[in-house]
Amino acid sequence: MSILFSRGRKLDASGQVDDFWMLVEGDSIVSTGSGPQHPPADTTIDLGGHWLVPGFMDLHAHGAGGHSYDDGSEQIMAALATHRAHGTTRSLISLVANPLAELRTSLSEIADLTASDPLILGSHLEGPFLSAHRRGAHNASYLREPQPIHLDELLESSRSTLRQITLAPELPGAMEAIDILVEAQVVVAIGHSDADFELAKEAFNRGARLITHAFNAMPGIHHRAPGPVVAAFEDSRVILELILDGQHVHPDVATLVFRSAPGRVALVTDSMAAAGASDGDYTLGSLNVAVRDGLALLRGTTTIAGSTLTQDRALRVAIAQAHVTPTEAVEALTLTPAKVLGLEHRHGLLAPGFVADAVVLDSSWQVTQVFANGRALLGADEATELQAADHAAAATAVADQHA
Fold first, then answer.
1. Which residues of the chain, if any, have pLDDT below 50?
2. What pTM does this model have?
3. What is the pLDDT of residue 305?
4. I need a surface site. Which of 156, 319, 333, 355 has the fewest CB within 10 A?
5. Cα-based distances in Å from 378 to 42, 56, 121, 144
């Protein structure tokens, strides 16, 4: 079955092309061009001048739609359905700190899902090798120092599907852990850490290649203590995750990140179960979370506990509030996260040889259709229903606030 997408406005990291067409066969893009002349196909989808961008990739998320990734396979798939409806076609499954036995079980379940669903890229361990002082919304009881025997057990449980891990490089044994993980082809991110500028540079030279949600749960930029974010700015090998919901990082600071590390910003959601759902009381791992006006906080504290973000909203915030170009914003949702996982030769562009993952967006950057591996995940009618549901949830939240 071949599908021709016609009359679109293509936008990816290589730039914009108007009156764009794209021919898909099976799960791959086979040819592209512009203008009225294009090859025949079994099915034609007329985009009517709407934006066509690559499918979004999320390196860091914990749930959505009322479901948490920590609660087993059924909950993972239900949460993914929400993210996919908002344009995220490829996802890592992130886990918070839990007892090692529970993490091993979760990693094994994710390995099974990865084998059965090509849109799942594997797992991301955000804990347990984190600083207690910078733990954020991770249970302090489950934090620990990295030891080779525990790393080996986690790697074995994941059956080569552990793709990313966050650790604090100041912990005893952390540098040796980076060696083990890099050899196992796991992307090491520094985060939830008190690391200073020099220690962050040491971790990058050891093989760490990512910063977990830049600025959050780590030292910021001080004029006499530049910190890990500036160390990442200066190292062209390092990519910076950024949660761009307008709450975790001020949009003007996000602009600084894009300008300081062009092509090296990966927008992530760090979403918890309330993403794409309503305000209320939730859990993140073993901790209780209260969500009010879309802001998730550990109950009874001012500690942010993940986000209620979806990647399409991150795109809109990037363009409207951080004032980055649409090309830069789309790159940060597609090609840059693909580079983190070494997938940039197959993912992140609308070009021949790349997977046929694509998102159709209207002039307001709202999702209207989603395709993955050349198949529709979300049609236009479903998108209309989704937007209506989102608007209704927002209205309910406002009404509750003023009740």
1. 391, 393-403
2. 0.93
3. 87
4. 156
5. 20, 14, 20, 42
